[in-house]
Amino acid sequence: MKKILIGTEKPFAPAAVAQMKELAEGKGYAIELFEKYAEQADFVGAVADCDALIIRSDKATKEVLDVAKNLKIIVRAGAGFDNIDLEAATANGICAMNTPGQNSNAVAELVLGMMVFKARNSYNGKAGTELRGKKIGIHAYGNVGRYVAEVAKGFGMAVYAFDPFVANEKIQADGVTPVSSVEELYATCQYVSLHIPANDKTKNSINFELLNKMPEGAVLVNTARKEVIDEAGIVSLMEARSDFQYISDIAPSNAADIEAKFPGRSFFTPKKMGAQTSEANINAGIAAVNQIIAFFESGDETFRVNK
Ligand code: 3PG
Predict the structure, then answer these.
(1) pLDDT of residue 157
(2) How far is the CA of 80 from the centre of ligand 1 (A)?
(3) Residue 91's CATH number
(4) Rounded to an integer, what distance in angstroms lies between the CA atom of residue 212 and that of residue 294?
(5) Considering its fold, how many domains does the chain have in total?
(6) Residues near ligand 1 with C-beta < 6 Å?
(7) Domain for residue 206, yes or no?
(8) pLDDT, tens digit, for every residue of 273-292?
(9) How far does residue 10's CA lie from ligand 1's centre (Å)?
(10) In the β-sheet with 266-268, what is the strand arrangement from edge to edge?
(11) What is the pLDDT of residue 253?
(12) pTM to 2 decimals?
């Protein structure tokens, strides 16, 4: 019997785990949980005998993939797969997949939730501001970006987007205004929501120069990855511009510094919360199990992300 291991430092909701188990066992697979591990070494020690591995932001390093001698498929239950060493997966003959779109609505709801929280001064009783009529720029119009647009429109915001990989007609069809450059997006919008992946091209790309183009009252919302931010640049910008605020679902490495130097001008979740809903966990978890079953039963590699 093939074994699927769910290796998640940050656990799925119990309802998601129950449904994943029912689905896998119903199809004749054994499924085991390895959650809330304290050290990466513990994770490495847990993967030795699994045939399939489901992870979230867990680090599937070369060491993990080398130790997992039976492993044929690893599925990142979520969108970003920058936590998988794709070269090591390929070298070991392991198929790596993600589950695009499955947790996107949860992330989008958090974007607007954090924006309201900040616009209302963290609910401290002082007069805040409203989102209606303000401009929001969506940096990368993928699955999450599209949901952010939908929710932002519900708030009465004017929505703009930049994505060189998505046709303008597709963006316009959603009632969103496409802009022709990343600089134009930042120069136009008081709010910018980041949805770019972390890769060699995007790392440190959100820098002082770009952010300084934003209009008065600028708010940057990051539910993507902390690596895309030039963290020193953010500090310089917050020093230069007392209006600039930074909200992130992934605390930057210099979070303590930012919070101490610029009180009340940032908000960082203590743990990545964007995809942490029961619905998102069920959607992504079930998709991961289904993709594993389809891979073993019929060789289906639809969501493969490595060569
Ligand atoms: C993703 O890439 O899907 C999100 O960042 C969610 O990550 P998580 O599963 O660790 O919450």
Answers:
(1) 99
(2) 7
(3) 3.40.50.720
(4) 48
(5) 2
(6) 10, 56-57, 78-80, 103, 272, 274-276
(7) yes
(8) 999 999 999 999 999 999 99
(9) 10
(10) 177-178, 158-162, 135-139, 191-194, 219-222, 245-248, 266-268
(11) 96
(12) 0.96
